[in-house]
Amino acid sequence: MLRRGRTALASALALAGAAVGLWSGLDGSAAQAATGVPTPDHVIVVVFENHAYSQVIGSSRAPYINSLKSGGANLTQSHAETHPSQPNYFAMFSGSTQGITDDSCFTPGFSSAPNLASELIAAGRSWASYNEGLPGQGSTTCSSGRYARKHNPWFGFSNVPTSTGKTFDQFPSDFGTLPDVSFVIPDLCNDMHDCSVKTGDRWLKNNLGAYATWARTHNSLLVVTFDEDNRLSGNRIPTVLYGEPVAAGSSTSTTYDHYDLLRTLEDMQGLGSHAGNAASAQDITGIWAS
Q1: How much is the pLDDT for 35?
Q2: What is the CATH number that goes with domain 34-235+246-280?
């Protein structure tokens, strides 16, 4: 899906919002009202694979994701950028596909472009990825069993320490010790790539259900999204947000994409910077608790 154009008015408003968003209050807090997004203590983004909106939302095969939708927020017009998988992960993480056009194994650290992790680190905030099946913390292997590096764009950046790429076994049981922002990447079965929607939905409940429940009372956020659709639905994908900052049962039909999600994550952290196409993207709004 080609990056949609912005009208002159929308661009002007986005630039104005970004400028105002750099202001901090007397107490040093981020300008939440300026950007229209909350400031959660912890954010986890979970990325699943290759399913269209209608294959998951409203499906009996995904009861847990749909329960998160009902208790959280549903983006009914969320879209990926392109096909196949790997460029979408780079877009979501760095605001650009970084020239990646396929799922081939890239050279570790090939790019020094700004990205979500490098921005967080520069701002003194914490970041990690938790990658199911990763052979060991910081491993840059291309594949191992059901693990595939094509779903882990952070290893493509020289400005992101490989040590922040952790195994899923390192995911903390004390959620208060989680980084400010983290990504969780299931393996090729549990991300619905090789196995069913039902398998992925069950994995999410079993492995992150406790965090989701905790997030509802600890100013934290869970984002469940997909890299791309099944190539049959205009790249419209499921995206659900859940946690205390989210208005329960809310939804929006505004069209959003991976760049908009990245910008929202950046603005939630008050980073004052935007990687790649996130600079001209829009914050996700209309779903937050007052």
Answers
A1: 57
A2: 3.40.720.10
**What is the pTM assigned to this prediction?**
0.89
* Cβ-Cβ contacts under 8 Å for 162 (sequence gap 6 or more): 108, 138, 139, 140, 155
* Predicted confidence (pLDDT) per residue in 99-144, tens digit: 999 999 999 999 999 999 999 999 999 999 999 999 999 999 999 9
CA 21, distance to chain mean position in Å, is: 21
CA distance 265 to 253: 19
Q: In the chain, what are the domain boundaries?
A: 34-235+246-280
Q: Pull the structure tokens for residue 98.
A: 């970084």
The closest alpha carbon to 186, from 138, 223, 145, 147, belongs to 147
In the three-class reduction of DSSP (H, G, I as helix; E, B as strand; rest coil), residue 144 is classed as strand
Q: Which residues pair with 241 in a beta bridge?
A: 73, 223
Q: Is the sign of the CA dihedral 202, 204, 205, 206 positive or negative?
A: positive
Low-confidence ranges of the chain (pLDDT < 70): 1-35
Cis upstream peptide for 87 (omega within 30°) = no
CA nearest to 264, candidates 45, 62, 99: 45
